[in-house]
Specification:
The structure is a homotetramer. Chain A is an alpha/beta fold and about 350 residues long. In chain A, about 40% of the residues lie in helices and about 15% in strands. The first copy, chain A, contains 13 helices and eleven strands. In chain A, the strands form two sheets. A seven-stranded mixed beta sheet of chain A has the order 3-2-1-4-5-10-11, sandwiched between helices. A four-stranded parallel beta sheet of chain A has the order 7-8-6-9, sandwiched between helices. Chains in contact: A-B, A-C, B-D, C-D.
Chain lengths: ~350, ~350, ~350, ~350
């Protein structure tokens, strides 16, 4: 048998661990593997490389990003190319495609499958917002990087009696902010799921100072929003895909707090370092388990499904389940985090 | 209300995160917290400290070990002291006890509860072998330390064309070896659940060399055992508790491989570094969630239970469920790891 | 004897290691130690704490920042308080003051010494720009943080075929950019000592792409400046001390490159994480050696000098030597870095 | 011009950084580079690979070990092969050889040079014992690994009121023990340069306990020796090169302390993890600077010398200076460390 794989969407730690896992599992079971370059684009343009189970592949387990490259193809362009995609797969003798990616990629994979391509999906997102799975790989690594940064900010905030704001990834969901905030011992956490009242934020911080504490750490998801009617956000720029740019929320909040409290406030935007670098052991294990399960599913012809972690077990779920809706931070998680703030 | 807490058994990263979480949650809800020193011993001897929700407590989130100290009290000594324990708790005005520990500690906690002490348990083990919970805190940190060591050993093994054996914790279960081995890209993994045949180990390694690879990494749980009739283990020393000492399995295997293959083999025992140091973000989050749930259970009088992670949710389970039997590596996990070896 | 110490100026990893080293060395030699809070301000306002050689002090070796707090006092305010400072020191029975800080602090220390206060200086700067010493502590830690970030950016830049710009600390000198750039394998490095020509930067990057490379990493010191006549920098804001704010140079360069090359360019500002967190082993050793030498100098009455690393030896140099002029990146270092760019 | 390079002796972090630096510098200056495999052996057997300045070479900057492999050739075998070596170099058109290695390698390099081969040496040793240079690369990484381990052991020692012994590399010199001990806040440090009296070690530790401390950390270089007449070391095994094996000194000391003090003592041997893995930023910069200087020396025909760090400058020194004698820990360093023990 001959398996193809590709990585699409934003990169994250663990993509290479999946690629390695697919190659080793498939090779061990007598199949061969090719990789398409730069996501769906490479599939459409038929740019592919043979992947061998050698020391080179073995070593990518530790490497962030994806050796296959990634890309973002417009859905319409993609759908217009369905015939070419099928031709390319047929010409290359591909029996199964393992598509590794986030929400958008999995929707594309589902559409391909609905149009007759034998696909297995592997969910990937830094943001941990895929519905069907307890965790996506990349998330733990992003939280680890953000937590390490928060640990560092504690000591400098404390030395200077400052409030430090750290803006982490999460446009639509607050998972990274929640976990990094809990792990980093943040004194406030602001997430998209719960619009914040700047007056409340200031009150919590003021109470800390009244209790004799000298500094504070606030973790802000980039998609955090003020409650209606509290203060007016500066208008956000819109990027080429029509998404608002969220580069500024930390700085905006810093400004608002400085206006209200007599304290020095600094803001740090973590940015791209959250998605790069060697994956944590947790993410390497998860990515590898996904790879083994997806490959075995592909080899036995169990298509149209997505691997997912449920408790201690990796399962196969339907595309519907996986991409139906974003997994947001549930109320019970938010409430237990609130016990620790202030 | 007045809550007491203590940590018992071997230390592991995240104990302090639980203590901090208990103090912050309880204080925020109007309760006070005392800590007993050195595990059950401190409870028996009435050595306790008041724990305040200040910057000092806040900072222990990052610190390995336990600020309360830990200890191992013989069950018989413990049981003989039940009246004194009850008196001590009554004198100190304690309404609830949160006991943090492993198998042994939880059994003690259950016995206390059966004898009328209001207890909530928090499971703790490096080894991840508590039955009722998907993960115990400390495990992820131990795996991270072991994986980091394996990453380092790859480069030196490769430079010298050697086989490197790394012995990790796990006397009765192979969780650390399994996860660190998968995360570290080990070429063989030996765990207590599956006695190994030294000839098979050598065959797998020999095949690697035949394929042109130049080196190999083998991860061995300290409790790994050869299959009956394969080779004779040197007799193991027995410690004061009647446990066999497992200091040597890596070196024994190294010796056996050197006898069978014409290759340089070295063994490294990771030892205590696996249980020390700053917990990973994952463990800090898990320990903190346990703390919040255990404290809330204690405050509402929900005694006789143990917090446990099930999928994405922290639940309360019975002592029976938690301490009934060790959680071993299940077959489906072992089989998917096997796909990646060699 | 009775020694006082204080930390002043921006915080950096290793300050606590010096404080610990002073306390342990002095206590071991029979002296006592007090710490003034928040830099010169605490000295003027007579806010001090007794420092004991206990486990608490021992543990700060690992902690970033400074347990004494720091501050920035205006030189004029400071000089106006000389009588009060002398009174405070006399009242507290202080025989010697160990002042830990950067350029500004050491100038203050020198002025105090010239006015009759027995002072020993310990140089501290993230930026490594103190003239008399090969290295200042904090620098190695800052470079380590920046290098770790660059390592992460490589993998994401490579996956997306992007140019990544990372802005590091260094308003007046390029040491952090130079070392992190070399350690991180940057393809271009821009430092204040050598104004850059944006056309040259683009040419080097374009040549990379022509050679088949897919991405590039550029490390920019925050004080990097374009060559006169190349392009006009947006006007910089000026802070309360009359310093230009340098928040934007990475973004400005990203914009300029995107205008000139047909490529995706992203910019990341590392910010305060470079000055926080556990110091590297190198910085802990250096800070501790400084502490031992400064304390011994203070105890034998060798005042008016600054500890400095020269090759393998810690020496005492005059204040003049230490604060005369900034230590910039010398030409031979710059030239050898250039061999590696592109 | 055509440059050859090879790595010989024990591997250490930074070897690949030198190889990369040589390739990039030489290629940038119009030369080509070949690498001989497995140290001198590859030179004798004419096993060589062409090294290109591509992304693959660029990436090894982060990788521990050496992509060229290393080996240990007996001096007599090596010297017998001088004609073959010269022939091999002449046949391959090599104009200069950059030999990267420790004491033994540099002696070989010097002998080659004396016999007419154009050689430049690059010193390499984990142990930091090369006489002519302030630091060798690999040392900072080894110290970082050991310090990280000591940090972890503090928390577990403290939780269990134990003495923890950690045995680090250093058969003949105590540099790693000294630096890791200082950085890790060890309470005792034992190095080969100063034979220890076990009674003194116990007294220092006993005094700690009398002062109310609960635990202790002792760092032991593997070559540490008891003072004559204090206690008898178990006889050491001798390896194939006639070197004594030093696997046991930590365990021996643990046993002796347990015999004398009523306390729990555990010993950990760090082993090979000290020489593997990603080099620290410090080592990457140092290795890269060595590479640039050695390559430029080779290209301008400045043979028969070794690169060395002196203060802030990389210089060329004679082979005599570099290999004359081991650089031991000098007395002033030892004395300043003693101030911090106990």
């Amino acid at each position: 048998m001959r398996i193809a794989t590709l990585t699409s969407g934003g990169d994250c730690p663990g993509l290479n661990a999946v690629i390695r896992g697919v190659v080793r599992t498939a090779t061990g079971l007598g199949a061969t593997v090719v990789g398409y370059e730069d996501g769906w684009t490479g599939l459409v343009e038929d740019r592919r490389v043979q992947l061998y189970d050698d020391e080179e592949i073995d070593r990518i387990l530790l490497r962030g990003g994806t050796i296959l490259g990634t890309g973002r193809l417009k859905t319409s362009d993609f759908e217009a190319s369905i015939d070419r995609v099928k031709e390319n797969l047929a010409d290359a003798g591909i029996d199964a495609l393992i598509a590794i990616g986030g929400e958008g990629t999995l929707k594309g994979a589902r559409w391909l499958h609905d149009n007759g391509v034998p696909v297995v999906g592997v969910p990937k997102t830094i943001d941990n917002d895929v519905n069907a799975t307890d965790y996506t790989f990349g998330f733990d690594s992003a939280v680890a990087v953000a937590t390490d940064a928060i640990d560092r900010l504690h000591t400098t905030a404390e030395s200077h009696n400052r409030v430090m704001i750290v803006q982490v990834m999460g446009r639509h969901v607050g998972w990274i902010a929640l976990h990094a905030g809990m792990a980093g011992g943040a004194h406030d956490i602001l997430i998209p799921e719960h619009p914040f009242d700047i007056e409340d934020v200031c009150k919590r911080m003021a109470r800390r100072f009244q209790m004799g504490e000298k500094y504070g750490i606030i973790v802000v998801a980039e998609g955090a929003m003020p409650k209606e009617g509290t203060f007016v956000m500066p208008e956000r720029e819109v990027d080429q895909f029509g998404h608002q740019k969220f580069d500024d929320i930390g700085a905006v909040i810093a400004h608002e707090i400085e206006n209200r409290l007599d304290t020095d406030v600094r803001s740090t935007v973590l940015g791209h370092i959250q998605r790069g670098g060697t994956p944590t052991a947790f993410d390497r294990v998860l990515a590898t388990r996904y790879a083994v399960h997806a490959t075995k599913a592909a080899l036995r012809g169990d298509f149209g499904r997505v691997v997912a972690l449920r408790g201690e077990t990796v399962k196969l779920v339907s595309f519907e389940e996986a991409v139906g809706q974003l997994k947001v931070v549930p109320d019970h998680r938010w409430e237990s985090a609130l016990s620790l703030l202030g």
